[in-house]
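INFO batch 0412 | record 1 of 1 | parsing
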Amino acid sequence: AHIVLIGSAADGVTTAEVRGMVPDDARAAVSDVAGRTSLEVLAAVLGLARACVSNDSGAMHMAAAVGVPLTALFGPTNEHETAPLAHAPMELLIHEVSCRPCMLRECPIDHPCMRDLDPARVLASVRRMLTSGERATFGLLSPGDRRIERGDRFTVAFGIWGALNCRAGFVVED
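INFO prediction complete | emitting tokens
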């Protein structure tokens, strides 16, 4: 198995730290491409993946859109408002704390909603995604659960923090 760490240039310090935690004998199987992909290359990388683990981000929505089985981690964001709408096999993982969803990028109490999400739950979800053998079909769901089909004309706007958001009028049919 090969692991590819993705993210923006700002995520590079974190992805380098994660790669550095991998034992020396396995580090060659981990590529860090944070900040070095265009959106097109990111879509291609995700399209080749057998599974994806992501926080609520634009990359999470892209992974779902290209059909990769997805373990999506929700901390401060609201999974009912910003979960992917594509038909990818996915599990949304949250750790309930009284302050979530707060929608804060910077947390005054060190993001217990993310920090306390049990890594064993994440690993179990990834294993389920890897064994599911499923891939998504083309199409997103609109607010009324009507499939947006290939050839439909629509405009997509990106919501908070660049996350694809097709609810609350963010998808407007032409």
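INFO post-check: The chain has a mean pLDDT of 79.
INFO record closed
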